[in-house]
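Q: What would this chain look like folded?
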Amino acid sequence: MASVLLPHIRNIIFDLGDVIIPIDLRAPIRNFATLSGLREEEVEAIWQEHGITMQFETGLMDDAGFRQHVRRLLKNDAWADEVIDTAWNTVLLELPVERIHRIRQLQQRYRLFLLSNTSTIHIRKVNQMLTSLGQPPLEELFERVYYSYEVRLAKPSPDIYRHVLKTAGLAPEETVFLDDNAANIRAAGELGILAVQVQPPLTILDYLNEPTDESVSRTR
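A: My prediction, written as structure tokens:
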């Protein structure tokens, strides 16, 4: 796997889920189905019909509003906040600390940014996981973090990439964007960003390894 750290690259933008931390997108559906006694298909249909994830991740609902919405739609007013948060956070799998080590190494040579469609509950959990591993929180790993719920935009909207480029002062041709989602990659690439889809079994450790003399010479 050739490194994407080409000589002209100065900036790296990371997605979070399935780029830095592995995720299981169906895990919350399974867990809320178990809690509610509904079938997974029923819970998934409710999620899609009401756009719960998108509303939460674009800041249209705060934590309390999200939890109350879940209680109402799944017809259980007795669930404590912690029950809902735990089920919601099952999307997050074990965090590979070696990826964090590589990001910290890259801090010395590149401007690093995080761009994620995410929610406040997930970010708190990821930061707890980082702390438990003796690592700094996301806000210290990156020069700046861009969370969808804060900027009120979500990938793959071109506006969210334009927002990052403008506010961070980045030249797209000097910028690499790493994401697992093909639509997000296409949208970033159309703006001139070097957009790379991270696909298993490869990880950012493969894409962000030190370039060899051969790979560098091919870019000249």
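The chain has a mean pLDDT of 94.
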